């Protein structure tokens, strides 16, 4: 994703920081994020859409899933439940459903694919 200007870059950096702080607490709703960024939800939605072409909800979900993929890749021994909670998902079933819909694989299948890739690279 290319950012158009410095203001957009700043916004996305602040939003990313707010997301990282709030994901483990499960408070990744747009109203909370807007409050932390000292703007209205309408302003946040408009600015994120202008900067990324995505709605704020889409951007937040993408960020949460990207974090989940990083955690699953780095710590495959951690449970899916713990990964879901660290990424702000209320329950494992919802996390698994969203992950599979967006990634085409369940979290478990994602881990297995990474492990198979590691094995084939070692050979």
How would you characterize this protein structure?
73% of the residues lie in helices and 0% in strands. With 123 residues, it is mainly alpha-helical. The longest helix is centred in the middle third of the chain and has 19 residues, at 56-74. The chain is elongated and about 50 Å long.
Q: What is the structural class?
A: mainly alpha
- H and E string: HHHHHHH
> In terms of per-residue confidence, which ranges show pLDDT below 50 for 5 or more consecutive residues?
none
The average pLDDT value, as a whole number, equals: 91
What distance lies between the first and last C-alpha atoms, to the nearest angstrom? 35 Å
Characterize the overall form. elongated
Strand percentage:
under 5%
- The percent of residues in helical segments reads over 70%
**Whole-angstrom Rg:** 16 Å
Could you describe the largest sheet, including whether it forms a barrel? none
How many DSSP H or I helices? Answer: 7
Question: What is this structure's SSE topology?
Answer:
Elements: H1 6-22, H2 30-36, H3 41-52, H4 56-74, H5 80-86, H6 92-103, H7 107-122
Helix pairs in contact: 1-3, 2-3
